[in-house]
Amino acid sequence: MAENGSPGGETLLFLTDEQLRRGIEAMFFAYRAFTADPDRLLEEYGYGRAHHRALHFINRQSGLTVTTLLAVLGVTKQSLNRVLRTLIEDGLVESRVGRRDKRERQLYLTDAGAVLERSLSEAQRGRMRSAYRTAGPQAVAGFRQVLEAMMGPDLQRLYQQMKDE
Amino acid sequence: MAENGSPGGETLLFLTDEQLRRGIEAMFFAYRAFTADPDRLLEEYGYGRAHHRALHFINRQSGLTVTTLLAVLGVTKQSLNRVLRTLIEDGLVESRVGRRDKRERQLYLTDAGAVLERSLSEAQRGRMRSAYRTAGPQAVAGFRQVLEAMMGPDLQRLYQQMKDE
DNA sequence: TTGGATAGTCAACAAGACTGACTTAAAGTC
DNA sequence: GACTTTAAGTCAGTCTTGTTGACTATCCAA
């Protein structure tokens, strides 16, 4: 019922349902805060979270194809297309015909797109930076370990691939 | 560019944008996995994530009022009401007029509601448990520390209150 | 007892996810 | 060269979940 003592360790095998539930609730509340800052900014531009995600990954991996982005975001192409179309119309994203395979479309941020991506990213990094500083480097390492274990093999592969490219 | 060495610590003040971005992406992918298991179950019942959240917190704090639940979930009461109505109609949640204040409605899970909550929770705890086991107790402590720092004061207060009641 | 604040409900709308069916263009294969 | 597959995009329709605005019921205090 009450929190188990010995905060550091030794309690590995005593994973009570209560401890797990606390973890679940922490994820819920933290994710809400995590998205809150960019959400405020996005609203000013009339965009949503979906636009942010697209901008983020196009920035991260410039020139990626629509299919790749689809896999990373885990949504249907109809859903992505709605978002992508407005970003292209508004001049934040550019879609170029693939060099090798002309069926593909490669996605790039325009200068304006890079500006918005940067301010969204900065809002989100601000909170992350402050959380990291508060919790300390050892906690940060643990944070990343648990998240990586939580994503499961498929998403973990995506996540790791992103590091290299 | 590359991941800094010395996995344990010492890198506190070297919070590069790249490191922060990795954290952001880890949150994104992990949260997706985090919700995937209960989502599959919910679909069988014709419910969504909002129903899960309501069931979770009603179970956690039996007899809480609609207003309290509203604050915890961070949505508008109209949005919550739609979800709550279907849960009540389907006999998973009971809404009783408040004893002291008759304007209030106190919310309780029925037996059927408790059964569904339990299976949703079990699905979610399964992934959490496995991530905790993989990462180890020290990582778990860090995970919780970073999440708590990330939620900010308001949500952290809600989160902490929930522990006691 | 009247009038304002609070708790909750009903109605209508928008964003963003989904499925399904289809087109176009390019690439690959027999 | 004809056929199939693949990448991208489109149109239509649905669902969940968020929103605002207008409303009712209850409580409390002047």
From TrEMBL, chains A, B:
InterPro entries: HTH_MarR-typ, MarR/SlyA-like, Tscrpt_reg_MarR-type_CS, WH-like_DNA-bd_sf, WH_DNA-bd_sf. Gene3D superfamilies: Winged helix-like DNA-binding domain superfamily/Winged helix DNA-binding domain. One of its GO terms (biological process) is response to stress. It comes from the Bacteria. Transmembrane segments: none annotated. Keywords: DNA-binding, Transcription, Transcription regulation. PANTHER family: TRANSCRIPTIONAL REGULATOR, MARR FAMILY (PTHR33164), TRANSCRIPTIONAL REGULATORY PROTEIN (PTHR33164:SF44). This is MarR family transcriptional regulator. It comes from Thioclava dalianensis.
